[in-house]
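User: tokens in, sequence out, please.
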């Protein structure tokens, strides 16, 4: 792949990640390419979810939709964390109104040991192609973020076989078959490192690691089952900044900030900016943590709460974002009010 990308015109996001001085915090929204955008819904009517993910031109178009509409300070490639389980042989369907469903989830020790991280970047070449194309099409407007799911969160889906509130099947497997589970975590860690490195080579300028179900683990289980993989992955991806979003892992903030090797930590809305800053001793960039459902409040209220959030985190070492993905029924004008308020700050 030729990497003669157009020069970057807005580097605010990368400067905040490096801890440099900024005029105002950068802003983007998790799941900013999604169902609250009418232009996304139009494409959703024409192609299945994985057709959209696997066709670089469609993934590129969807990635750029929120950039054109709202002009945030970063783009995130349109894809899904479940691409890695697919590359490891798990059949994933995205069912409308239900979410992901696996045709052959891990149900036995043999199933677990059959999981092998082989040729993951080759199997997911469409993602690298989408990243390369999107870098070209962005034309340097804003940096492009790549991403992957963290091993624990991927394990949850691969064993449970579908979405869940508590992932009880996955947890039960973990406790009953620790050796087989450890094998799966190791393969997922290798796969994720290979995948993220390939994304960087294809043009990703930062990457985010989503451990969406970290909060289901006790602090002890998090240390044993999630943290080692996170540390290994963050240490292995050194060419670009890594943002680690371990949702619900407030109890591990201190450890993550000093031992994970991530450049930034994503924060959900269940902790205060003051708590997050104190636990991380102001030494790492924090990203978050607007309650996604507060985007359903009246616009003046959104503006007020957004300004208040920035005041509390401070302008430096901070990336304004939501505490989780944007909800499908948020009016576009409300999302715009959030982005604009950050951009007008200071
Ligand atoms: O942020 C972005 O704009 C980039 C795109 C992105 C998607 N999924 C697209 C998507 C990202 C970063 C993800 C990550 C992802 N996928 C996570 C981690 C982040 C999180 O939300 O915790 C998880 C757990 C998944 C797995 C997944 N994908 C689920 C559980 C679902 C169904 C639930 C839902 O929101 O519908 C998806 C589907 C999905 N991934 C959609 C989008 C835009 C909606 C699909 C649709 O169009 O119906």
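Assistant: Sequence out:
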């Amino acid at each position: 792949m030729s990497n003669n990308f157009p020069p970057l015109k807005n580097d605010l996001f990368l400067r905040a990640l490096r801890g440099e001085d900024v005029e105002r915090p950068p802003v983007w929204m998790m799941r900013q390419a999604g169902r609250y955008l009418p232009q996304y819904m139009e494409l959703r009517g024409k192609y299945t979810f994985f057709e959209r993910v696997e066709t670089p031109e469609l993934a590129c178009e969807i990635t750029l939709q929120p950039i054109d509409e709202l002009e945030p300070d970063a783009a995130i490639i349109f894809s899904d964390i479940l691409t890695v389980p697919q590359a490891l042989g798990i059949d994933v369907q995205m069912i409308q109104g239900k979410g992901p469903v696996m045709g052959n989830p891990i149900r036995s020790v043999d199933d677990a040991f059959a999981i092998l991280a082989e040729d993951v970047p080759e199997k997911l070449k469409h993602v690298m192609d989408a990243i390369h194309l999107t870098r070209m099409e962005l034309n340097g407007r804003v940096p492009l973020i790549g991403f992957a799911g963290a091993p624990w969160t991927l394990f949850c889906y691969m064993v449970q076989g579908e979405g869940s509130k508590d992932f009880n099947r996955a947890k039960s497997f973990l406790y009953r078959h620790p050796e087989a589970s450890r094998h799966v975590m190791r393969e997922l860690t290798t796969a994720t490192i290979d995948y993220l490195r390939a994304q960087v080579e294809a043009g990703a300028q930062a990457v985010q690691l989503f451990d969406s179900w970290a909060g289901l683990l006790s602090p002890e289980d998090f240390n044993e089952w999630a943290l080692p993989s996170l540390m290994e992955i963050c240490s292995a991806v050194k060419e670009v900044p890594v943002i680690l979003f371990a949702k619900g892992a407030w109890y591990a903030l201190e450890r993550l900030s000093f031992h994970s090797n991530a450049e930034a930590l994503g924060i959900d809305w269940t902790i205060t900016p003051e708590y997050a800053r104190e636990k991380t001793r102001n030494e790492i960039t924090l990203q978050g943590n607007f309650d996604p459902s507060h985007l359903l409040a009246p616009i003046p209220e959104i503006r007020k709460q957004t300004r208040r959030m920035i005041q509390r985190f401070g302008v430096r070492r901070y990336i304004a974002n939501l505490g989780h993905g944007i909800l499908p029924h948020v009016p576009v004008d409300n999302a715009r009010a959030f982005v604009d308020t950050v951009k007008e700050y200071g």
